[in-house]
Specification:
mainly alpha, 1 helix, rod-shaped
Length: 41
Amino acid sequence: MLINVFVLFCDLLFKSLIHKIVKISVVFKIYFSLLCKYNVK
């Protein structure tokens, strides 16, 4: 029972971590694209 809960918790943590990483990467992509756009001038 305890191991099951632990596995579930790890799964949730892992998913949230992946979600955060994806969000951060998307934000960085947008930021860099904007930066490049303004640096061309």
